[in-house]
Amino acid sequence: MGLFDRIQKSDKPAIAKKDLAESNINTPNIYENKENSLEDTKQEPPKKVGFSISRDIKKQEIENFTSDSRSTILDKYFVRVDEIDFDIIIEKEEGVTKYKIPEITLMNTALSKFSELDIKTIKAELSESSLQKLGQIQGYLKSFSEKNNLHLRDIEILHLSHYFYLIIGKLGLLEIPLNDDSLEELMVNGIDSPAYVFHRKYQMCETNIRSDRHEATRVVESIAYLAGRTIDSRTPLLDAFLPDGSRVNATMQDVTLRGSTITIRKFSADPLTIVDLIRYGTFDLELASFLWQAVEGYFGSKPANTLIVGGTGSGKTTTLNVVSMFSMYNDRIITVEDTPELQVPLNHVIKMITRPGRPGIQGYEITMDDLIKNSLRMRPDRIFVGEVRGSEAHSLLVAMNTGHDGCSGTLHANSADEAIIRLINHPMSVPKVMLSSVDFIINQQRIKRNKKTIRRILGVVEIGGSGENITKTELFKYDGVSDSVVKTGICMWEEEVCAIAGITRDELMDDRINRKKVLKYMVNNNINGIKKVGDVIKQYQENPENVLKHILE
Asked: Does 310 lie in the same domain as 242?
């Protein structure tokens, strides 16, 4: 199903139909035309609906659009929206990485055979009818073509049906990148400007999707409806999340001069794991095994309280989600967020989200601080806070100071020192005496290497001391020459957990080596996915000897 279908409530009308008849009818001019050739895909083609047009015929049509001699093809695959496959080409052209959807060109070619009045009529009639299925739209277009002597080929009707299928009751051509699991983020910068996507592998890419003023406004209003919010000239800013968990920010042309904008951070049904971050180089095995042991607290003896700091887009929430998987499998965990991004693969988890205020309704707003204070009455073992920005920082550290070990949160800061300054000053206003309840500050940032943006842990700092005398010890530090994290300090938490667990330091280090073996085994044997990785972690917590025996066989 398309994104709109997956998240729209069944008892609400398809708001995306709104204003279709009023949309800019000069449709053939609102998309870029240059595309590339495609190679065969290995996945089975979708079930044929309406016309019996093979993928080979469609592929041959697309291959007529050869690559520019200045471009280099990096990747080819396809994205499925319901029963439709859309081919994707990733290419490099004059230093710019482009995410191209060849069928957009074919849609435009077919649309050019319609008059403006034809397009307006089709939009109006389809939006007012019950013809929503692909086969029904194809039948309607064939009948319309014959009635008006347009002499459209079946392949042209196929491309046209795909176009109208996406804009009738859906989010238009944006449905294609929104259904691409390889993408993290989608950005529409205004009218007659290419949309951009952030690809997990190829990073920022320019697309060949362009929206006119009416279509962009229609999509923004549809998204606002799905989010249960309002966006108009009186309230031209929208910051919300969709029912599927995707985070959305949108603006109207009242405040963005080039027209409505959309930024969607996609919710991942299968989020990244520690295996992914090791492969990407964000963590190495040494740091990963240390954090596994620390967050877990050596089988729950002394879980560490952590803050993950970094800039925008540095991957803080991803890392928080990854390390949350190290929690003891029977812990009662409460997550507190503005948008539901954390996915802890354990059974005893309660997810709490804030509620924005509404004009004229006093007390309707529920803040992060409200939720953290309430969570303390719910007998949690751990509290994870998606993003600490204000007074909730004080409540989180109160939780850490009252015996709730293993708590964690993210914070916007460029270093551990900057994080501490932010914590003790307004609006967080955390008393300095409470800072020692934080065991570790993990600094993660986006950096540039070889013209590529990468995410790396730049350091791990241990917080110690008592009263207002705070000490900081750098335990791990990023080395740019080797592109790795090196151990630089002695960890006091290790002595504390040894005393509580009744083990020697050598036993603790042996356990860390064993965890490193388990992590290496998962990486080498492609054991990945939130469920599989979570199962291995749980098995190690229950019986480490059995896990080690299995991986050494």
From this structure: no
Look up tokens 């003891």; give the residue: 328
**pLDDT computed for residue 38 by the predictor:** 34
Q: How far apart are CA 492 and CA 503, in angstroms?
A: 15
Number of domains forming the structure of the chain: 2
Q: Is 368 exposed, middle or buried (0-12, 13-18, 19+ CB in 10 A)?
A: buried
User: Can you give the residue range of the structural domain that contains 176?
Assistant: 3-265
Q: What is the CA radius of gyration of the chain?
A: 26
Query: How many whole angstroms separate alpha carbon 80 and alpha carbon 44?
Result: 11
Distance of CA 487 to the CA centre of its chain: 31
Task: Find, among 210, 235, 252, the residue nearest to 107 by Cα.
Answer: 210
Q: Which residues pair with 185 in a beta bridge?
A: 198, 265
Write down the mean pLDDT value for the chain: 87
User: Residue 360 burial (CB < 10 Å; 0-12/13-18/19+)?
Assistant: exposed
Phi, psi of 174, rounded to the nearest 5 degrees: -65, -20
**Cβ(222)–Cβ(171) under 8 Å?**
yes
Determine the average pLDDT of the residues in 287-312: 97
pLDDT reported for residue 39: 37
Claim to verify: residue 81 and residue 196 sit in the same structural domain: yes
In terms of domains, do 254 and 397 share one? no
Helices (H) and strands (E) in the chain, counts: 18, 18
Number of residues that this document lists for the chain: 553
Residue type, 151: H
Among residues 442, 497, 473, the alpha carbon closest in space to that of 297 is found at 497
Q: Quick one: 89 and 69 in the same domain?
A: yes
| Per-residue CA distances from 522 to 298, 510, 536 (Å) | 20, 19, 9
Task: Name the 3-class secondary structure at 21.
Answer: coil
How many CB atoms neighbour CB 133 within 10 A?
15
Q: Does 480 lie in the same domain as 397?
A: yes
Cβ neighbourhood burial of 73 (10 Å; 0-12, 13-18, 19+) = middle
- Contact between 74 and 52 (Cβ < 8 Å): no
CA distance 42 to 78: 10
Q: How many CB atoms lie within 10 A of CB 389?
A: 17
The span from the CA of 193 to the CA of 177, in Å, is 16
CB 106 within 8 A of CB 159: yes
Quick count: other Cβ atoms within 10 Å of Cβ 125?
Answer: 14
pLDDT above 60: residue 49:
no
Cβ pair 406, 382 in contact under 8 A: yes
pLDDT, tens digit, 9 for 90 and up, residues 332-385: 999 999 878 899 999 999 999 998 887 778 888 999 999 999 999 999 999 999
* Residue 60 confidence (pLDDT) above 70: no
Please tell me whether residue 405 adopts helix, strand or coil conformation: coil
Give Cβ neighbours of residue 122 (< 8 Å, ≥ 6 apart): 114, 140, 141, 144, 164
Residue 51: give its domain's CATH number: 3.30.450.380
Same domain, 230 and 197: yes
Same domain, 250 and 336: no
Give the pLDDT of residue 428.
96
